[in-house]
Amino acid sequence: MEKTxxxxxxxxxxxxxxxxxxxLSNLTINTNNTNSKLINLNTTTASINSNNQNKxxxxxxxxxxxxxxPNSEExxxxxxxxxxxxxxxxxxxxxxxxxxxxxxxxxxxxxxRGAARQLIFNYDHEKENGRTSSIAQExxxxxxxxxxxxxxxxxxxxxxxxxxxxxxxxxxxxxDLCGHEKYxxxxxxxxxxxxxxxxxxxxxxxxxxxxxxxEHLGIALALKIxxxxxxxxxxxxxxxxxxxxxxxxxxxxxSTGTQKLPVVVREQDDVCVYAExxxxxxxxxxxxxxxxxxxxxxxxxxxxxxxxxxxxxxxNSTFKSSSDKVEFLMDGAFSVKGxxxxxxxxxxxxxxxxxxxxxxxxxxxxxxxxxxVKSIHYKRTPCDEIASGNSCxxxxxSKDNIKQSDLRKGMxxxxxxxxxxxxxxxxxxxxxxxxxxTIKPKYQxxxxxxxxxxxxxxxxxxxxxxxxGDRGIVRFKFMKAPEYLxxxxxxxxxxxxxRGVGNIKNLIYPExExExExxx
Length: 520
Ligand SMILES: Nc1nc2c(ncn2[C@@H]2O[C@H](COP(=O)(O)OP(=O)(O)OP(=O)(O)O)[C@@H](O)[C@H]2O)c(=O)[nH]1
Ligand SMILES: [Mg+2]
Description:
This protein is an alpha+beta fold. 21% of the residues lie in helices and 30% in strands. The termini are far apart.
């Protein structure tokens, strides 16, 4: 069944003159943590793929652990000090995100009626209605900047990823996110919890910059994720509409809130320069492509092959070195038949080997429990060690008989010596980007911070009220469970169309507060 938004129809580009997220660039923000329930899977991968009717859930990846695979020398070599590059794909519904992911990773062209996206969807219902409602991941592998093509587009991820991994000296993980507003919390989770190095903003040449385009752009900017723009559907956009789209996005990127220097990439341009400059200065390349004719796709591929890991360049403060104590942000949990509990996520500090003992938590009471790592999969390929900077899956076992139903979003795996204490309350310096109602004590909003996503209430503020553009120090309290947070981490919060961004300044420990009171 084809999507209701017909490809052949063109619409006027959005011409609302407001730049996105007016004051974002003024905040000092470090990317970090977000929170809610992890998806439970009690079935095998095959049955998940065919049966699970994911209702806009946050399932990230469906790992199939093959216990018999040998740990290949190529993979060991590949993983030596290598950091994957993670690119999140964002933009309005129907702009061609999933299609482009299919075109880039499967090395095929689209038919303009949804063929390429079918190759990357997680669920049958997504295949039927064409709309992404879960986070899908695919990989592009490169050897000396030449892409390693998958043998067959229909190969299962386990087969194609292992092949790509073995033949590549560089891997880009592409994180396909949802465009529909209904799934915005999943998209925010993808941007905060999966710690992308870059965000690729997709705009349909015929549809222009829409409200969700700006919303996604604003979130990427708030998280200080370097961005680049891809304008799709240049094959069907009427020339005047295409021109308006280009002019408008250029204006948005140059606006005071965004402060980028947009550059439309031409065929003869050296994309190497752009790949470096988006890391170090304000340049924002704009690629104009067609997923159907392939125009412009080669330039985009070349550019992507040159993108560097921000972790590798020590440009992402979320990550620590592999000699630091282990911190693993969990973004998914699965119960795999015959294997047991498997968790997926990103290792932001330390090194984990098969057999390493780690602490899993915080649970709803704030406790951590010891688990042992039984096996590690990097891009569906078994390996015996993984270092900070990479996303992977761990098969875990515990004496406490932890089940996937005991897991919740916001959980992490920490070094077994860790004495981290999760918190209910924290103070953050916030700026209100848009408000529908006034923000005052007792106001509630969903806080996103890395893999944490939970409703919190305003306990107190340094001012009486906060309105659009206002800044203040706000003390929040989580409603359900204490969370794993850090001073310096970026928080995003939203409630309906009210939204704000902030930076954690202080974690509140009630015992310490009581001691302080006594000392007075
Ligand atoms: N003609 C033409 N059609 C395209 C192009 N890119 C994508 N399409 C079509 O546009 C439609 C929407 O593409 P999707 O990839 O599903 O869009 P999306 O951004 O992932 O949408 P959501 O997941 O719902 O947010 C599909 O029917 C594609 O075949 C293009 O460059 N040219
Ligand atoms: Mg999609």
